[in-house]
Amino acid sequence: MSSKRNMKRVKEIIRSINTNFFLKKHIPLPSTMQLLKDLYPKVDWSRVDFYEGLPWYTPFIASYVNAQALPQFYSFSRFSIYLRKFDESRAQCLGDIVHEGMHILQGMHFWNGYGFGILRGFTVYYSALFTRHGYRNNPFEIPAYDQKFRFMAFCEKHNQHGIKPEIDTAVLKKIYTDTPLVFRKYQFHYTGNYFILAASFVFSLLLALIKPLLDALILLIKLLTKPFR
Asked: Partners of 52 in the beta sheet?
């Protein structure tokens, strides 16, 4: 029985690799980009790419995640926002994008968003705080969720519900007047253990160095396991 479960797990991993190793870049609607620019006017959105689908490893590390914002592994400056499914006609989807947009603001706060692949100030601090607070109570996640809830409340106030009806993009033009939703800067003060912070730095550095080797291995697996699709 155990061997069957292990084989099933292996097949699931292989399917995820085959499906999500190469993700399709998504071009957000102009109204979505304007929304992000209104909410986070200091973010350099030219350094952010959008992808439909999650990285192949996400379901095995964080199965609860439907959207994600990460520094790009093969870049010194760029970030990515991933969503399982883009449907920008729905307030709920825009809420997820607004949530991840807060993470981009956070990411560009540290070292101006620059670094070595995944090794950025944001990931170092995030990982360090994750060891103590977990996911939902992470000091980086709390303001992101609060921002999403404020956005959804704004939508409800203007009769734009989570799934139906389709969002009226004209309503989104009013959002810059909602002061609590607009973040021109991000403030953060680390109060955790500095030994853990140093360990998090080393961990992020190792990830940045190992990722090319891991990707080469995954690509080889992908090429050799097409029958598992």
From this structure: 24, 83
pLDDT, residue 226, reads 61
Phi/psi at 83 (nearest 5 deg)?
-130, 140
Q: What is the tally of helices (H) and strands (E) in the chain?
A: 8, 4
Phi and psi torsions of 106, nearest 5°? -60, -45
pTM of this prediction?
0.91
Task: Flag residues of the chain having pLDDT under 70.
Answer: 1-2, 6, 9-10, 13, 225-229
Chain-centre distance for alpha carbon 80: 7
Q: How far is CA 204 from CA 59, 76, 95, 114, in A?
A: 20, 14, 29, 14
143-185 pLDDT, tens digit each: 999 999 999 999 999 999 888 889 999 999 999 888 899 999 8
**Cis ω for the linkage preceding 165 (within 30 of 0):** yes
Q: What is the CB neighbour count within 10 angstroms for residue 119?
A: 21
Hey, what are 91's tokens?
């307030």
